[in-house]
Amino acid sequence: MSDIDRGAPMDPAKRTWLIASSCVGAVGAAFTAVPLVSSFAPSERAKAAGAPVEVDISALQPGEKMTVEWRGKPVWIVKRTKEQIDAPPKHDGELADPQSKRNQDELTPAYARNEGRSIKPELLVVVGICTHLGCSPTDRFAAGAQASLPDDWPGGFLCPCHGSTFDLAGRVFKNKPAPDNLEVPPHTYLSETRLLIGEDKKA
Ligand code: FES
User: Fold this and answer.
1) Is the pLDDT assigned to residue 136 strictly greater than 90?
2) Looking at ligand 1, which residue's alpha carbon is closest to its atom 1?
3) CA dihedral in degrees (170, 173, 175, 178; nearest 10)?
4) Residues with Cβ within 8 Å of residue 191, at least 6 apart in sequence
């Protein structure tokens, strides 16, 4: 089973990791019912203990997102399009923490303290759990006016539980229930097509 959401713009009703469980807050419980991505390297027992997860990202195309599990949490890997990368940061003034300065030790590793919150400009790696009460936000990758979003929406994620919104770097907008940006997990690239989630590149 593929875990890649293909095509943009994304349909908000499209399947996502946890949307079916909505905001019951049962993130952990929901995982037991969700098939896991086939590219996991460690054993099930090792994963449960928090082992790093190696992911093949070779099939991920611009505008797509894939989801893998790490430490019982959904981790999103989003391949941003050239337009999304090149778009000037017009909405920084609308963000609660545009420079990712809050709770950096927990939320943003040093190598992701940049505009895209990423090692590579085109690849976003974030934990797909809202920092308010733990719902899973939905994809709203298409920019522009649409239901439940402002007319100048730049593309990102909408949490269906209480309306928190995040841009395509996982940065939360101001005056929303979610206090923080989405968590960037420790990760490193083993090659152009292999990503390791759960471990930083050590010196
Ligand atoms: S859980 Fe996301 S806005 Fe409340």
Assistant:
1) yes
2) 133
3) -10
4) none
Rounded CA-CA distance 71/83 in Å is: 32
Amino acid 57 reads: I
Could you give the residue ranges of the DSSP H alpha helices within the chain?
27-31, 44-48, 82-86, 104-107
The C-alpha angle with vertex 96 and arms to 23 and 98, in degrees rounded to 5, equals 120
CA of 137 to the centre of ligand 1 (A): 8
For 28, the 3-state DSSP assignment is helix
3-class DSSP state of 200: coil
Q: How far is CA 14 from CA 42, 75, 124, in A?
A: 29, 17, 20
112 C-beta closer than 6 A to ligand 1: no
How far apart CA 15 and CA 171 sit, in angstroms, is 22
Q: For residue 104, which phi and psi values (nearest 5 degrees)?
A: -60, -35
pLDDT in tens, 96-116: 999 999 999 999 999 999 989
Q: What is the DSSP letter of 19?
A: G
Structure tokens at 19: 């949307």
Beta strands 156-158; 65-70: pairing state: unpaired
Question: pTM above 0.85?
Answer: no
CB within 8 A of 101, min separation 6: which ones? Answer: none
Q: Which atom of ligand 1 lies closest to the CA of 137?
A: 2
